[in-house]
Amino acid sequence: FACMMDGNQINSVAGVLKSYFRKLNEPLFSEEYFDQFMNITNIRENVEFVMKARDIVRQWSEPHIVVTRYLFSFLNDLSQYSEETQMDPYNIAICFGPNLCPIPEGKDLVQHTNLVNDLIKNFLIFCDDIFHDEIEGPLYIRTDGL
Fold this sequence. Notes:
The chain is mainly alpha-helical. The protein has helices spanning 7-22, 31-41, 46-57, 62-79, 82-85, 89-100, 109-125, 127-130. The protein has 8 helices and no strands.
């Protein structure tokens, strides 16, 4: 991040990343698993949420898990600098949630928008616990600062 001194550069990178995930044929959090994810979003016990999320993620293909693990590790790292960036886990979830977990047609947008944001926020916060299983693939290396 240090090489990007201009805020427009960072916004451009974020825009490209969001656009990439928005244009995928199948979103990371696909419609197939939408109801399962919405059912666990209201779980307030962190350990139970992580366990249920992990159970759903284990149904995905390995490449799908690797990409999602990498993205959420990166976003988690980004959130560590929220004092400088104003991008805490919830703000990141608001920005990326609609692209990562679109609300299927026929679902109530008002009801599900907050649930999707909470889901993405919790995945961001608990990514290391959710993606605990050993799966071969690239790992995001956390930065030492902006």
